[in-house]
């Protein structure tokens, strides 16, 4: 009987509670508290939606309150939009009679999509306020967004509604070829520092044409986008030494999400892909970040020079070279899902004063991978005529950061001179660092280079580093990646040693 009585009482409680559709509230008195007094929405390009930002609103009182209105000051004309505790209100702009319980809080999520013409012409800031209540009880939280103008490059739309496509490695992908005489952008084969560029899809460089990136140019790639250098086409990146942390003379390739949340997320865009037979490439002072594959070379026609360049946070490879010819000086690569540098299917490579590091969390990654074969190729192996590393650092978070994969059917020529290398013990004849003088000379094994800050991709060293003054003068590059004159004997890696800031 007691059991039935308890069920009856519980049913009454549920019945009464389910009938209640509102709370006894009092009007807000203007004493709301906020998690911040200004919400800064990070820089966005014109007409590209921002990330979603959060504001928390607190009712510290003992009363359930009703806020008569929560609205954007610019009303329905505001370029911001909100949700308030999951409600969308009037087009995300105006919310009436918002209830906030005693000692409770609510969340407001804010986004924006604005044009450069909406921003203040002197500082390019677009601003508004979230207003809580009105009159004597009015409280406001400021909203601030920097809107950046840009040149947008994208595939055209075909008459049937489909997007323009180009063929890459036998597949049609969303893309277009850069034009020397575009009616709006003029010569799209010359990138300048006047405005940043935003690329949608693959931007192709036509056969027998050269794309040039002038010092200071900035290129932002949308998701699944990239740069394609076609057969007989060329790439010239003409960055120069910068004098400030803003890298004002560096050429920068990265994704199109400018918010700090995205600053180190790999795989935001595809790659710079060099087709079979592309030719005459030179890269100087390039910083490339957050791609799937940074530089992807497919049997280019002749020698590529890469100097004073940095590649970070690639989902697969920083540089993937297939039967390529590369001369690399003052290169820094870090964080790659498979390998920072991977040279496969033979080729000819010479790297001097480079820092190849890999602190990716995947236990099977490498800083450097060298191979003279490729699964599925015909023939499967190809001659590796040279893989030389002089005055380099090859390091990272794994037990082994250096991998050689030799197919005996083709030549496999490699040599490391005056390099700091991380590698565990092995009886494999390919890795006899102390006794194999044909392939290894003056190897520093498993000693800490003491990089300044690996998590921030700062690979500077000081005099306490195991790489300090361990280089061979015969291989010296006169200046380091920052343009600082090297001393003799030189330090290993891309940076001349300096005292770290205290």
UniProtKB/TrEMBL annotation:
Say which domain of life the source belongs to: Bacteria
Sorted alphabetically, which keywords does the UniProt record give?
Signal
- Is this entry keyworded Signal? yes
Signal peptide (UniProt feature, chain positions): 1-21
Name of the protein: Right handed beta helix region
Please report the organism this UniProt entry assigns to the protein: Flavobacterium nitrogenifigens
């Amino acid at each position: 009987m007691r059991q039935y009585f308890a069920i009856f009482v519980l049913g009454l409680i549920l019945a009464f509670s389910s009938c209640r559709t509102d709370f006894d509230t009092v009007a807000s008195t203007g004493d709301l508290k906020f998690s911040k007094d200004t919400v800064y929405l990070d820089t966005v390009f014109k007409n590209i939606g921002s990330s979603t930002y959060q504001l928390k609103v607190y009712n510290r009182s003992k009363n359930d309150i009703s806020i008569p209105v929560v609205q954007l000051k610019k009303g329905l004309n505001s370029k911001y939009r909100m949700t308030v505790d999951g409600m969308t209100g009037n087009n995300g702009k105006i919310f009436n009679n918002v209830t906030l319980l005693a000692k409770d809080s609510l969340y407001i999520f804010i986004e924006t999509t604005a044009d450069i013409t909406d921003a203040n012409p002197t500082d390019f800031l677009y601003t508004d306020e979230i207003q809580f209540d009105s009159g004597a009880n009015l409280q406001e939280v400021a909203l601030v967004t920097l809107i950046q103008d840009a040149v947008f490059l994208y595939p055209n739309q075909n008459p049937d509604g489909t997007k323009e496509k180009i063929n890459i490695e036998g597949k049609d992908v969303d893309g277009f070829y850069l034009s020397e005489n575009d009616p709006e952008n003029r010569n799209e084969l010359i990138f300048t520092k006047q405005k940043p560029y935003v690329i949608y899809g693959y931007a192709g460089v036509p056969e027998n044409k050269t794309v040039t990136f002038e010092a200071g140019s900035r290129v932002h790639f949308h998701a699944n986008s990239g740069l394609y250098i076609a057969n007989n086409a060329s790439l010239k990146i003409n960055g120069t030494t910068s004098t400030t942390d803003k890298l004002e003379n560096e050429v920068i390739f990265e994704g199109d999400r400018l918010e700090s949340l995205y600053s180190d997320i790999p795989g935001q865009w595809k790659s710079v892909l060099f087709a079979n037979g592309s030719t005459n490439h030179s890269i100087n002072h390039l910083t490339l970040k957050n791609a799937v594959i940074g530089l992807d070379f497919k049997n280019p026609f002749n020698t590529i020079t890469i100097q004073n360049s940095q590649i970070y946070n690639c989902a697969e490879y920083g540089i993937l070279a297939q039967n390529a010819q590369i001369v690399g000086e003052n290169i820094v690569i870090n964080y790659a899902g498979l390998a920072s540098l991977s040279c496969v299917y033979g080729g000819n490579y010479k790297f001097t004063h480079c820092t190849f590091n890999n602190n990716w969390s995947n236990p099977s990654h490498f800083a450097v991978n060298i191979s003279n074969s490729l699964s599925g190729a015909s023939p499967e192996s190809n001659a590796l005529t040279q893989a030389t590393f002089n005055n380099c650092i090859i390091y990272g978070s794994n037990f082994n950061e250096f991998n050689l994969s030799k197919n005996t059917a083709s030549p496999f020529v490699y040599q490391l001179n005056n390099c700091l290398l991380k590698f565990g013990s092995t009886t494999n004849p390919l890795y006899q660092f102390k006794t194999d003088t044909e392939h290894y000379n003056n190897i520093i094994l498993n000693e800490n280079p003491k990089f300044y800050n690996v998590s921030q991709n700062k690979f500077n060293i000081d005099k306490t580093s195991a790489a300090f003054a361990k280089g061979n003068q015969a291989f010296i590059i006169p200046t380091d990646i920052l343009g600082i004159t090297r001393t003799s004997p030189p330090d290993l890696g891309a940076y001349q040693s300096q005292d770290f800031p205290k």
